[in-house]
Amino acid sequence: MTVMPIKNQKLTKMKKNATITIPINNPYGVVCFEDMLLELKRMYDVEKNAKNEVYHYVLKSGNFKDYVEFNRLHKGQNHHLECVRLLELKSN
Hints:
The protein has a domain of 59 residues. By secondary structure, it is an all-alpha fold. It has three helices and no strands.
């Protein structure tokens, strides 16, 4: 299936704030800066590991040349929006 890139489509309004749950690692029930850093690192590692899984698949499956060509053709696109659109198409 060929999916054409989205052109001139308004992006959904992005949130300016995010709320995260931070585990508290002290007996006083007070969130410390270190707690926040640990949670941010955990969230970063989740994202990094997901991307590394995709890169591993691309390399192991022999699709590296296709990946390079895809990046050349789709540079500057909102890849998150495209992923959401593709998932919506597949669910219908």
